[in-house]
Amino acid sequence: MSNEVTRIQAAPSPDAIAHFQKRLSLETDCADVFAAFATGSPGFVLVDVRGRKAFAASHVPGAINIPVLDLTEKRLAEYPADTLFVVYCAGPHCNGADKGALRLASLGRPVKLMIGGMTGWADEGFSYEGATAEAAA
To answer: What DSSP element (H or E) covers 111?
Structure first.
């Protein structure tokens, strides 16, 4: 019986491996970021690309704030050229993280996107830092 799932045959395993390896080279998720920070040495810089006001209200613990338009060579000069940046924004409804990742890649910087952003972080049950988060505690 054919349906929208089975109508098109699944890709051969080598194609699927290449596809998913490529995706994982560009993306990470909230649980993996959380686990990396729990080690005390994550090996990347987590960047919230939202505006300063949104960051001040709440953000992922350990993140720094560099709004998309501030992602410049001058702003990044304090980081070694091989620093891995992981970017996020509000959530899947926002393309700010994609814009930030594109800017970083255009500057020759290694970058991954934290899929889900703030929404994904909340969905995982992880807490935030910031004025709003502190007021809720």
So the answer is: strand 111-115
